[in-house]
Amino acid sequence: MPRHLRVTFPGAIYHLTVRGNARGPIFADDGDRARLLERLAESVRTYRVRLHLFCLMDNHVHLLLETPDAKLSRFMQSRETGYAVYYNRRHSLAGHLFQGRYGAKLAAGEEYLLKLSRYVHLHPVFTARSKTIPLEERLERLRDYGWSSYRSYIGSDKELEYVTYGPILAQIGGRMGQRKGGYRAFVEAGLAEADADLLEILKQSPHAIGGNEFVAWVGEE
């Protein structure tokens, strides 16, 4: 069966996932995580991508980004190849680090940015292990997690120069200081009650996030 072609155009918004080969780890330590973020920052600048947020997990990575110049494939190839070469050299390994083709779901405009950002930022405390701990401890873990853009969104860390915060925080409203606090409240409310509507939308298609007409259009491309 032929692979589904990526739908690319200037200004397209994607939720991207990159997974380790055979679900294996893609980081051995924090040095590896720091190197991937360095590579990510380099690729954002080189290909003029608007990176809205990221979240690094042990065996996969989430990115939410926009491609003003429709250079998704070149951006992802640069980031993945550079990091994989580094990782194999550092750990004296060979072979594929990542599992086949990266996942790319095209979102139907900025209306999905806010809910998708909460979905991605909550991943560190939505693991099977985390779901068994008390809500207060999950909240603490979320606020302490250092390998996503969440802490910089809520003002606990300084903003990262390679992350574009405006489009998501603008949907919160108010002044910048108020927006960060409002965003924190919005995300952390998702700890107690999952966004059932978004989860249902995410199940509809492996290629698109949006209404029925949009999902059908992406599927036909």
What is the topology?
Blueprint: E1 12-19, H1 30-46, E2 50-56, E3 60-67, H2 72-90, E4 103-107, H3 113-121, H4 135-144, H5 150-153, H6 166-169, H7 176-189, H8 196-204, E5 208-209, H9 212-220
Parallel strand pairs: 4-5
Antiparallel strand pairs: 1-3, 1-4, 2-3
Helix pairs in contact: 1-2
Q: Count all strands and give the number.
A: 5
Q: Give the quaternary arrangement of the chains.
A: single chain
SSE series: EHEEHEHHHHHHEH
Largest sheet: 5 strands, mixed
Number of helix segments?
A: 9
Label the overall shape: globular
- The spatial strand order of the largest sheet comes to 2-3-1-4-5
CATH architecture field? 2-Layer Sandwich
Cα-atom radius of gyration: 17 Å
Q: Which structural category do the helix and sheet elements fall into?
A: alpha+beta
CATH top level assignment: Alpha Beta
| Low-confidence residue ranges | none
> What is the CATH superfamily label?
Transposase IS200-like
Q: How much beta, percentage-wise?
A: 5-15%
Our measurement of the CA-to-CA distance between the termini, rounded to an integer number of angstroms, reads 15 Å
The CATH topology, please? Answer: Alpha-Beta Plaits
Question: Would you tell me the overall average pLDDT?
Answer: 92
When the domains are counted, the total is 1
Specify the helix fraction band: 40-55%
